[in-house]
Amino acid sequence: MKKNAYNQSDKIFYDPISDFRIWKVAKLIFFLICLSAEISFASGSYAQEIFFSFSVKQQSVSEVLNNIEERSEFHFFYNSKLVNVSREVTFDVNNKNVFSILDILFKNTGVTYKVVDKDIILTTSAGEIDEYNQANRKITGTVKDQTGEPVIGANVFVKGANGVGTITDINGQYSLDVSQDAILIVSYIGYESVEIPVKNQSVVNISLKEDSQSIEEVVVVGYGTQKKVNLIGAVGAVNVDEKIASRSLANVSTGLSGLVPGLLVSQTTSMAGKDEASLMIRGLGTVNNANPLIVVDGMPDVDLNRINMADVETISVLKDAASASIYGSRAANGVILITTRTGKKGKTSISFNGSYAIEKPSRSYDFMDDYPRALTLHQFRAASGTKRESYNFKDGTIDQWMALGMIDPLRYPNTDWFDTFMRTGILQNYTVSATGGNDKSNFYISIGMMDKEGIQINNDYTRYNTRFNYDYNMFKNVKVGARFDGNWSDFTYSGYADGITNNDTSDSGGGDMQYAVAGVTPYDPVTGRYGGVMAYGEDIQAFNPYAFFDSRKPKQTRQQVNGSLYIDWNVFKGFTAHLDYALSYNNYFQKRADMPTGAAYNFQKDSDIGRYYVGYEAGVSNDNTTSYKTQLNARLNYDATIAKDHNIGAMFVYSEEYWHTRSTGASRNDRLHPSTSEINSALTNVQSTSGSSASEGLRSYIGRLNYNAYSKYLLEFSFRLDGSSKFVKGHQFGFFPTVAVGWRFTEEDFLKKYLSSWLSSGKLRASWGKMGDNSGVGRFEQLETLTAMNYMGDDVVKGFVNKKMINKDLSWEISTDVNVGLDLGFLNNRLRAEIDFYNRLRTGMNRPSQMSVHLTGAYSAPRANIGDLRNQGVELNLTWKDKIGTVDYSVNLNGAYNRTTLKEWNEFLSRGWVFLNMPYHFLYTYEDDGIAQTWEDIYSHTPQGLAPGDVIRKDLNGDGIIDGKDRKAYPNIQRDSPTTTFGLTLTAAWKGFDISMLFNGAMGRKDYWITDFNNTAFADRRYASTWDHWTESWSLENRGGEWPRLGSSTSRSDNSYWLYNMSYLRMKNIMLGYNIPTKILSKISMSNLRFYASAENLFTITQYPGLDPEKKNSSRDLYPINRSFSLGINVSF
Prior knowledge:
- The protein has 1133 residues and is mainly beta.
- The chain has 18 helices and 55 strands.
- The radius of gyration is 35 Å and the shape is globular.
- Keywords: Cell outer membrane, Membrane, Transmembrane, Transmembrane beta strand, Transport.
- Pfam families: CarbopepD_reg_2, Plug, STN.
């Protein structure tokens, strides 16, 4: 039988979609989950909803009660001195509730019972109260937390009296019969247990403190969890509480800024549908794809920005080899692990989280009106030596324009183009979720909607999310479950795919919105015939950007479905087997229908020019991409304790992953009517089609061994063997091992006497490991590819030719990591400090080999391993958590320093692009000597063709010529990313009120500010009409101007004059919330009600004069980062 192979050169990877055996496993798991769906979830009338069927023969009452507890969520409380549970009983029950069984058990015994939800208290009748009970008296009290809120369901027991106790009610109150010398033990999950002597008190109120150890105990890592005290890898953990989940955000990535040291979060635009942030862990890992791997609920390669933030429970950032290498070939740039919310034991709870935000540009350019704009033309011509009589705006013309503009504004407009394109944005987030469960099963289900109207016209994005997580204990040692999530989105924009620019600086055809806006004037109309007054030296055929945007409105739709099934089998104590199968399906569709617009209008000649500003033909196009991914994991775990003090954990995983993508496209020009937008509604004289498909596979063998001795000495070894279909046979498999050690030195007896008075905890850890990366390698890199050709020499010959050579030596990029860390806790762990030092060397970075192209000439460049890159840095994380009176507060400060250095490049080095032992893409520019104020300044420098008002460049080598040899390197400055990042989080809570503030910032980056909005060299075309052109440009009257003279074309080249410090400090978020007291909510059947107000990007402190220092530099600099203000509500029933 022929197998479906996606590497035809070596058929060892198979398409799991077509593998019948895998589908049989998936069907079996799905059948087990469907069978478990009959289980009823806990509710307020739980005792009446669950039924039992069993046979009892000469069993003790205690055994029967234990049997009921094992089959349900019931718990029995009793005093064995009062209730005889050792007597034997015999009976049969069939589909009976717990009331019927208790009636049978205690018939004619004098024992009565009281059911409080799932807790059953057994007592004796009043006539049989013994001497012990007669000596007791009733006490009452309330259990509250540190904020004064009642704790519902807290356990209150009498120490030493087996089974005597109760739980607090919805108001945190309890009552109990105890003796005078009794000691109460009060406990609740997440709080420290306390013991309170009763003595002569009749009212005993208790205040519980949060147990910081238990809250921070477990951290999510690859293929499992680990106790934080035993963690020896570099892992940054984010607990997504209601404050983070309630922020007015369109995606998850932008919410991570400033929270984890070493995680660089860069947002370059706030455009709806494109406002996700780029993520980078510990610097630029490679010159290829440096993005970290995203893993959601065990499934890799999930789009982080299509997840509903309200569904996220924990986020872990794996930064070193010890923590990340378990994911092998895609972990070299770090890993971000996300777990979503699951069901909790208890009655079904329904929650709603909603927020409404308005958005405005955080910064914008201030454009001039028509009158001052015309005056700048006078200034420009005066600076360039033009005679006054040659001005197009001659004396009196400007005043005439102003007067006529009041009479005929269509013909004599005064347009604010920034306001024309911008609007108040709106961002709405709504999520409804339900959760519940019992001892047998639990579930979490949610439906969410995010709708964003961008601040730019014709830019809207709507996303719908749904999620269903389900777990079921089928047998005592078998557990099955399912994870399902789906999202659908509609994205509308104008212009090009990123909505603002096609990144082509030579495009003057109106297709680039930023270029076009920079070139229009206030005396150009938004609608109607276009052209305006066309002053001296300006392009009379300039394009109307509004017409272009209004006529070009592409729309993208995406659908994504992820599903997984799993089964866990506890084979015997300490040994478990796990099997899961996951499928991810994605569909992307883009539809575009352009409309032709009118010709440009020449005001001076009062005539149209035969030129269109969208295109000479209207077009219709459809593009569709579908892809799916499958994953099969089989995992074995073994955990054992030897001689009490030695803990061993072992894990082995076999994994297979498969990807397949197919793309098609079609387009036609000459759309016949504006109301039609289908392909066949346009003519066929100009049409095109395209199509392609690609597949990829990965097979992995994974192992991990943990050893913990005396809770002091920690050792971990792991490996991953990955085989990829991207490489030729012999290079497909890569082996990535790691080893890590840790020492909890504060647990040593010989050190405790010196450290215990000031140091609560201390751990030293170190790791070494290797990780792989094949992200830069194409799916057909291992195969020769053919391309269709119509010509062979001068003859028309249809056929195929060889397009690309194969590099049989191409192999994995390898990242070798060394990490040393220190974790410290002071003052009973109120102050915690974590510091990490790391050194990461990436070897064998692959790039298209230009050398092979020069040698052969006829082929596309194959990839080769040609470069090495080193990242070195340090990370610090400080947390202080304490309480002053009734105010709980915390402070977290984190920071990171990273330096990236190119160590090897086995290709032609392009001076000005890469240098060895320098940052990759570093600054290499001319040094300036300021603005020439007089002709004497010009004559005293090397000739450069300058005039007063121009920027002077230094002749660094003194050869009398200004050329590339005069450029200077800046080895300590990174251009693409900052060397230092930091974040500061402040929180406080008092009597239901809470406030949080988040600041983030960056240092160590410089870049040019050369955009179309500070361009003074506009002699050959239009220029941006900003006020800075009037106030900042050098002139004879304004010799202190920060900008060169208007019309200075020699000052636009890269030089240090336009170099700016990109450091900044930003108030990223502030949130104020209030939780309605529980005692009020209990009267209206609510468990939680919170109102909050939030603001994003409130202010930014920076020297950079452009729109935002976080943006990567572009000559088009129009779409800013948004500032938003929101109101929201959280409510649970």
